[in-house]
Structures are given as C-alpha cells and as structure tokens.
Amino acid sequence: MEIISKSKSHVKPILLLSWLVAVALLLISISMQQNFSARETPIVAEVQQSKGEVLFRGEKRMVWNEAQSGTGIVDGDRVATGKESSALVKFRDGRTLALGNDSQVIISTITHSDSGLTFLVHLVKGTVIADSKKTCLNCRDIVLTSGGQSFVVASGKKEGFIRDIKSKKIEKFSALGTPR
Questions:
Q1: How far is the C-alpha of 140 from the C-alpha of 136, rounded, in Å?
Q2: Which of 13, 96, 114, 174 is the most exposed place for a label (fewest CB within 10 A)?
Q3: Structure-derived torsion over alpha carbons of residues 168, 94, 132, 163, reported in degrees to the nearest 10
Q4: What is the mean pLDDT of residues 98-126?
C-alpha cells in the first residue's frame, strides 16, 4: 500500500513538468515560425528618420517594437509616433510619408503586374503627409483611407491629412501650410 501512494505522489509533478515543457516547445515553435515568416515578407518601406518615440508592429503581432532609422516596414505593418514624436517613412520607390506627433498608420500594398505597387495607408489617428511630388512621377497613386473615407494622392502631389480621434473626422490640408 505504501509503495502505491508514493508512486502516485510523483505522478502529478511529472505530469506538470511534461505539460510545462510541451507549452515551452509550442511557444518556441510559434516564435520561430513568426520570425521566419517575417523574413520571407519583402520590405516595402523603411523608417528614414525618427524623432522621439516611434514604434512599429507586424500585422499579426501584439507587441510594439522601437523603430529607428533604417527599420524595415513590411506589408500590413503599423507605425506609430508618441506625443512629442515624428517619423519619416520612405517607400521603395522614393515617395515618403511623414507622421506627425501622436499618429498611427497601417501600411499595406496592392501589387500590379504592369506597374508595381499601390500603397494603401490607413490613418488610424493623427497627422500624415504623403509626398509623391519630388520623385516617382509615373508611379501608381497612394491611397489614404480613414473612417470610411478614401483619398488619392496622385503622382507629383504632396498632400496632408489629419484625423481627429474623438470625432473620427478626417480633413485634408495643404502640406506646406496649416490644416484648413
């Protein structure tokens, strides 16, 4: 009788240890798969300049990471700036996206077989200036969406947008001046 009770008392810690090892292996496997898939996704833009707190995260990630100059942005990534921060994101084709303070965007792409990429920028909050003016006169448009509205920033244009998070209203403004 005594032998059976001693062996039963060892079963619970062994089961618990086995369960913990299985969970750890599963988490390591998921992490490795996410890192591998992130490397497979092509970089569509990069953070060119960052001032203050600039963060990014992948489409299916929960954790925000610090973005510095040279950080690659892939299709579906979010980029966010803090209260006294700003960032300049440069697309592969040379066009740029300037994020003002306390702003957040989601950058996506549509690939066209004939002429490259259309960049879709969803303004979650804050201020953004899309600049296609200096380069890439024959590129496809940048499409900016927010709150059910869509705006097209045509090649050769520089336009700014601001979204009030409380009213969810978006306004277009002259990129060289102040919001109208």
A1: 9
A2: 114
A3: 10
A4: 88
